[in-house]
Amino acid sequence: MPDVRVLIVDDEPDIRATVSAMLEIEGYRVDEAVNGADALRVLEDHAPDLILLDMRMPVLDGWGFARELRQRGHRTPIVVMTAARDAARWASEIAAAEFVAKPFGMDDLIRAVERARPAT
Ligand SMILES: [Mg+2]
Predict the structure, then answer these.
(1) How confident is the model at residue 119, as a pLDDT?
(2) Which of 3, 28, 62, 103 could form a disulfide with 55 if both were Cys (CB 3.0 to 4.6 A apart)?
(3) pLDDT per residue as tens digits for the range 25-53
(4) Residue 10 C-alpha to ligand 1 middle, in angstroms?
(5) How far does the centroid of ligand 1 lie from the alpha carbon of residue 1, in Å?
(6) The whole model's pTM is what?
(7) How far is the CA of 120 from the centre of ligand 1 (A)?
(8) The dihedral of CA 99, 35, 14, 47: what is its sign?
(9) What is the pLDDT of residues 1-13, one digit of tens each?
(10) pLDDT exceeding 70 applies to what percent of the chain?
(11) How far away, in angstroms, is 79 Cα from ligand 1 center?
């Protein structure tokens, strides 16, 4: 697979570790950030092709991160990762490309990533 770089943004270490492992198995290159503010720093060094975004995080949440990302002119597609009851609505609030509802399995995650990522 061509190099596709994914930035995982989630304040829960277990979720970052699990999602990283799933994506690396599929051949994606993965970076991680612990909240929205951290993600804004990370993406200046490692421009992602796709962002997997938790919404509820300390310091800077998913809404604040998405707003700042677009204000900086980045058009990177976002896949929202959040609880099932909120996923569709919150994804539409930030104009995300896709969402996956927690808890999700590897197949759900990979399908959402494949739909959202830019064609290579
Ligand atoms: Mg969270």
Answers:
(1) 81
(2) 62
(3) 999 999 999 999 999 999 999 999 999 99
(4) 6
(5) 30
(6) 0.96
(7) 30
(8) positive
(9) 568 999 999 999 9
(10) 98
(11) 14
Position 73, amino acid: G
Q: Which residues surround ligand 1, an ion (CB under 5 A)?
A: 11, 54, 56-57
Q: Read out DSSP for 42-89?
A: HHHHS--SEEEEESS-SSS-HHHHHHHHHHTT----EEEEEEHHHHHH
Written as six digits, the tokens of 21 are 């492992």
Mean pLDDT of the chain, nearest integer: 95
CA of 56 to the centre of ligand 1 (A): 4
- Average pLDDT of span 85-111: 95
Ordered domains of the chain (ranges, CATH): 5-114 (3.40.50.2300)
CA of 51 to the centre of ligand 1 (A): 15
Distance from the Cα of residue 90 to its chain's centroid: 13
**103 preceded by a cis bond (ω within 30 of 0):** yes
Q: Tell me, in angstroms, the distance from the centre of ligand 1 to residue 34's CA.
A: 9
